[in-house]
Amino acid sequence: MGSWAGAELSALTPLRALWLTLAAVFLLTLLLQLVPPGLLPSCALFQDLIRYGKTKHSGPPRPAACRAFDVPKRYFSHFYILSVLWNGFLLWRLTQAVFLGAPFPSWLHGLLRILGAAQFQGGELALSAFLVLVFLWLHSLRRLFECFYVSVFSNAVIHVVQYCFGLTYYVLVGLTVLSQVPMDGRDGVVIHCNHRIPFGDWFEYVSSPNYLAELMIYISMAVTFGFYNLTWWLVVTYVFFSQALSAYFSHKFYKSKFVSYPKHRRAFLPFLF
Ligand SMILES: NC(=O)c1ccc[n+]([C@@H]2O[C@H](COP(=O)([O-])OP(=O)(O)OC[C@H]3O[C@@H](n4cnc5c(N)ncnc54)[C@H](OP(=O)(O)O)[C@@H]3O)[C@@H](O)[C@H]2O)c1
Fold first, then answer.
1. Helices then strands (H, E): number in the chain?
2. Pocket-testing residue among 141, 211, 220, ligand 1, by greatest number of atoms within 8 A of Cβ
3. Both ends of the chain: CA-CA distance in Å?
4. Residue range 190-217: mean pLDDT, rounded
5. Could you tell me if the CB of 151 is within 6 A of ligand 1?
6. For residue 157, what are the β-bridge partners?
7. What is the pLDDT of residue 192?
8. Which of 83, 76, 73 is closest to 172 using CA atoms?
9. Per-residue pLDDT tens for 36-64?
10. Which of 60, 216, 244, 251 could share a disulfide with 267, CB 3.0–4.6 Å?
11. CA atoms within 13 A on the CB side of 194
């Protein structure tokens, strides 16, 4: 049982391969952005696919062909609507499985097996997955609330590929949590829609504390999984590099737009990066 479980723990399942690939792609993309300009050829489509929102327009000129695929960034709310519904459904099924012993529907069971769900016994993992799914659902609900009542979206845009990626992401992340179960204020007044230098709290240390907080949320989920869950650490690695990339662009955007931008402020990690 021990060595079998050990083999399970280190197996490269389809989900692990996916998260590993995503993490590697975002790491490579981040490294490419750190290469001094001029050393590598610039590709407008590539830049269009990796930048979104306010940092899209600080890249190279965007050809009309790229602009044709623009989707309003306010559509971010769709990600969280989908996540609340889909992950709410998964949470409901998992609650029934953990507390009432009800089996998953056969299509879901089959899907989880294909994706590489854990095969070894371990009741405590099911409880950890339940807690992580509760956190993920609450997080999505909070983000949905933020999209509707806190965030003031300008006319910023995202590429339709990024939009589809965002939708797929929240479906996959819920399935990843479930695969760990062993088988058997917008109430204020809007003054303007310009991007200003944010100040206070964590903003004194980094340009994008929201991206840093996102990373910490996923790390806290890894802790809930008992710290040694390789699959979830791959999700965390992906979130790390994708948020580092967005934070890097955001930081460059602020530095190019505001001459008085605080010099000591880092992009993503206080004092480091
Ligand atoms: N897990 C993942 O893979 C993943 C991926 C992407 C995002 N996220 C999370 O989703 C959340 C939102 O991401 P985001 O990229 O939309 O964050 P963001 O660019 O910081 O935007 C958040 C809100 O603040 C506004 N804003 C941004 N910079 C501003 C400034 N300097 N002055 C005034 N308003 C400003 C934005 O307006 P505009 O939209 O008009 O700029 C938007 O309404 C974050 O918590 C992020 O971590 C997670």
1. 10, 2
2. 211
3. 43
4. 88
5. yes
6. 72
7. 64
8. 83
9. 988 888 888 899 999 999 998 876 788 88
10. 251
11. 7
